[in-house]
Amino acid sequence: LLLARPIQRNRLSTLGLSKRDAAILELMLHKLEGSEPDFEDAASALHESVVELIPAGRTYVLGVTDRGPILGSVISGVGIATIAETIALVRVDRDGRKNLLGSLW
Amino acid sequence: VRRSSSIDPELCNCGAATASVRRILTEWAAIDWFEPARATAVVEATRAFEEHHRRARLHEPELFPDKLELDVLRGGWPEFTQLCVRVRTQEWEWKFGALKKLSQRHSRTHGWSLSDAAPGLGEFRAPGPGDLFVRHGGLVFWNVFGIRLHHEGLLAPNHEADAYWYLGFATMDLIECIEWQLAEPGVQLDENPFVPLLHCYAAGLCPFSFGPSEVALFGF
Fold first, then answer.
1. DSSP characters for B92-156?
2. Among residues of chain B, what percentage have pLDDT more than 90?
3. What is the pTM of this model?
4. How many CA atoms lie within 13 A of B153 on its CB side?
5. Per-residue pLDDT tens digits for A10-41
6. Which of A52, A66, B78, B200 has its CA 20 to 30 A from that of B124?
7. A77: closest chain B residue by CA
């Protein structure tokens, strides 16, 4: 986990994300640009981005880590979580397994 | 394909909407996903989908046209996958273009918001089987109460992926259905346009929408 490399905004499209997930994450990162957000900031930005881009947009608790919730999409299982002291992008499968896609900062 | 759900309807408490939400969740938990459709499925599912469309049209006539072309398709996993690919790659998006707008406008009409719906929630804790919502910081989020399929390797990986993709979108319909009751707790279930849509799934046919008035009901 400690080897996770930060994801650049222009690399979101290389992670196998849906166009919708990538657009939401890009908007979230844009909202947080220039700051050093904590998880609560990131959660708020994610929630705002989902609401702005999707009618009746909802953010789901996909699972938990020892540091708090994994928040993201019920369709793709892609979400954000605090992992190894950083805010990370993860994909949660149906068995609850967490696949780290990279850190966001 | 056996299935299990992470939610226990009897543990859900949501004020005046508790009874209706429990019933919705109980019926949802009983759905036999991706099983061969029984003899009466086509009649039941067709009737349910037409009723869904009729009720939705009462609220949003511009989103749900008067004319509805409803076809029934039968096949196996290859045909199911073809339909999933088709709706994933077409321009029209049924859930985002019609169903979520229907839900959003209804919730707005009734002044419903997620944060207001869960005033008693304390700070974050891992969600339990009766939790519809979870609070984290100043925000409230839906708990994902997904379905797990237990097929003992009988499904090819690509078919399993499509099954879960489809279930993800169907789960959104469940959430819209529940939110409808939360936004308007006094409404009868037979007025909620998402209830008959869930009945269509329960009858054993999977709707695929190719346009605002063009729908196929697929049965295994």
1. --HIIIIIHHHHHHHHHHTT--HHHH-TT--S-----TT-SEEEETTEEEEE---EEEE-TT-S-
2. 72
3. 0.91
4. 0
5. 667 677 888 899 999 999 999 998 888 999 99
6. A52
7. B168
How is residue B87 written in tokens? 């709706």
B108 touches chain A (CB under 8 A): no
Give me A77's structure tokens. Answer: 């299982």
B141–A71 CB contact, under 8 Å: yes
Reading the block at residue B93, the tokens are 């998006």
Q: Measured between beta carbons, which residues in chain B are less than 8 angstroms from residue A59?
A: 141-142
Q: CA B186: distance to chain centroid?
A: 21
> Which residue stretches of chain B are H helix?
18-29, 41-59, 77-89, 94, 100-109, 114-117, 157-183, 194-203
Give B79-90 pLDDT, tens digit per residue. Answer: 999 999 999 999
For tokens 């072309």, what's the residue?
Answer: B69
Q: Strand pairing partners for A6?
A: A103
- Tokens linked to B141: 């989020």
